[in-house]
Amino acid sequence: MIFFPAIDIKEGKCIRLKKGLLKNIKTYNNDPIDQAKKFEQMGCTWIHLVDIDGAFSGSPMNHEIIFRIKKQTQCKIQVGGGIRNVDTIQKFLGNEVDRVILGTIAAKDPNFVKQVCKLFPDRIVVGIDTKNEKVAIEGWSKTSEKTVHESAKLYEEIGVKTVVFTDINKDGLLQGLNFNQIKKLLKSTNMNIIASGGVSSLDDLRKLKNLNFSNLEGVIAGKAIYEKKFLVKEALKILC
After folding, report:
1. Crossing angle for the helix pair 148-157 and 179-188, nearest 10 degrees?
2. Tens of pLDDT along 90-135?
3. pTM of the full predicted structure?
4. Mean pLDDT calculated for residue range 156-169
5. How far apart are CA 22 and CA 60, in angstroms?
6. Residue-wise over 17-33: b if at least 16 C-beta within 10 A, else e?
7. What is the pLDDT of residues 29-67, one digit of tens each?
8. Least C-beta-crowded within 10 Å: which of 32, 39, 100, 119?
9. Cα-based angle 28, 7, 189 (whole degrees, multiple of 5)
10. Are 135 and 143 in contact (CB under 8 A)?
């Protein structure tokens, strides 16, 4: 399993939210590039990056910082937040970003997802972000009528290989992952699943690992790392 440390970028700073709400912001590092280098030094091979400004505005705002992270570390990176057209995808992939994550556009326009999965094989990830089992969009500020499993079935049919599943009600609260939802999703699809939202302890990581699903690609952790609930090296030892 891959351990993905998260760097959420807002106004050029490394921040964390609670439940995706902008009123609940805490800054952990004024320099996301420095934070990425620290994760690399800790042994991470991947970093999960989100442009928070981009997620709410609809177009990337912190892309130059993201490009510099890629240039100044050896880590692979996956990036989400405001990526909603082919030109933007090409811009990120052209700057050596390894994978892009589509959220709002995927929920609104599955045909677009089908198109870009063919154009950029193995470099498109879809985010299924949920509130009360409904898919959230627009930087998690709105919910659609689609359920997790309806969305997953559709994405698998149109050629998506990898999904990031996040329970927003858990995100940033350090209360543990939504294991029931994750397990249901893993059972219902052949897509690779990356779990996210609420990682609070090494026990969460052990429990996730012990689910023993071949399509569980990895897990994203953010606040638990920044609040020093466990060390990155301890997480890597459990998962890798």
Report:
1. 30
2. 999 999 999 999 998 998 899 999 999 999 999 999 999 887 777 8
3. 0.94
4. 93
5. 17
6. bebbeeeeeeebeeebb
7. 999 999 999 999 999 999 999 999 999 899 999 999 999
8. 119
9. 140
10. yes
Distance CA 140, CA 54 (A): 12
Active site residues: 8, 129
Q: Does residue 138 register a pLDDT over 70? A: no
**pLDDT for residue 145:** 62
- Find out whether 180 and 143 touch, Cβ atoms under 8 Å: no
Retrieve residue 74's tokens. 């050896």
For 21-25, which contacts have Cβ atoms below 8 Å and span 24 or more sequence positions?
22/56, 24/172
Query: Would you say residue 148 has pLDDT above 90?
Result: no
| Measured distance CA(174)–CA(189) in Å, rounded | 27
Q: How many of the other CB atoms lie within 10 Å of CB of 76?
A: 16
